[in-house]
Write a structure and sequence with these properties.
6-stranded mixed β-sheet; 6 helices; globular; alpha+beta
Length: 188
């Protein structure tokens, strides 16, 4: 995958297929530790221990439409190339948490991508899901929550093109303000 926003899109699609109704996405840059952490938590169906043991194997999948599951193995490969790793916690009927760390200053770290556009796409494709997004570094943080957004604009769906565009732009502005300088600095 070309950028990290596509990785979290893939993780969220897995959550949706697992029946999640609440999904949390967090992007955290820790400059002193030289880490960029991407977390996706859900309240979906979770995985039994025997599946959790093989989930990072590209030839392991629960899908019946194909015999390989490349998303998590590609994510792991991308993380490991930067000195990072993928950690997965899951429990049946409780949900799954995927935490991926990347070496922040690694030349092999994929670019962040268009986070706002990816969130916008998720809101349009699955409007009934409660999404929460956090973007943070140091003392700066931005939080988006679909419940708060729906309360702020009652009667207008978040999938409305004007609302979706506003959310996309608002999230991308926050990414630029909180992470833009950090991501630019560490890759020089």
């Amino acid at each position: 995958m070309q950028d990290l926003s596509l990785h979290f899109l893939d993780l969220v699609r897995n959550s949706v297929r697992a029946g999640a109704t609440r999904i949390r996405i967090a992007i955290l840059a820790e400059v002193p530790a030289d880490l960029l952490t991407l977390t996706v938590d859900d309240n979906g169906s979770g995985m039994p221990p025997e599946h959790l043991e093989t989930v990072l194997d590209p030839f392991s999948t629960t899908r019946t439409t194909r015999s390989v599951g490349l998303g998590l193995s590609l994510l792991q490969e991308s993380a490991v190339r930067t000195g990072g790793r993928v950690s997965i916690r899951s429990a049946v009927r409780e949900g799954t948490s995927v935490v991926t760390t990347f070496g922040l200053s690694s030349i092999d770290r994929p670019p962040l991508g268009d986070v706002g556009d990816t969130l916008s796409l998720l809101l349009v494709s699955d409007p009934e899901i409660e999404y929460e997004m956090e973007i943070a570094s140091g003392g700066a943080a931005y939080r988006f929550h679909t419940g708060a957004a729906r309360r702020d604009i009652p009667g207008i769906p978040l999938s409305d093109p004007a609302v979706s565009a506003w959310i996309r732009d608002h999230v991308n502005e926050a990414v630029g303000l909180i992470l833009g300088g950090i991501l630019d600095e560490v890759t020089r």
